[in-house]
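anyone seen this seq b4? input:
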Amino acid sequence: MKRIAVIAGDGIGKEVMPEGIRVLEAVADKFNIPLQFDHFDFSSWDYFEAHGQMLPDNWKEQIGGVDAIYLAARASPAKSTW
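predicted toks r here
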């Protein structure tokens, strides 16, 4: 079993992550690769507003032991060049 931490973040991350997971599940089914997705709600504006920080102090322990992290893109709209 391969464990993947999923951190969708904000905005489009919440929209595209489920579709990306569907693709990963389809590939995993085709090649018989067992996957487990562990979803985390931190690293988002909602989490920051609720907790005053982007990540919990023990984020490494919460994510620890996974084989991969599926992380949505991060960017500041104010710093965007497009």
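DSSP finds three helices and three strands in the chain. The longest helix spans residues 12-30. kinda curious what u guys think
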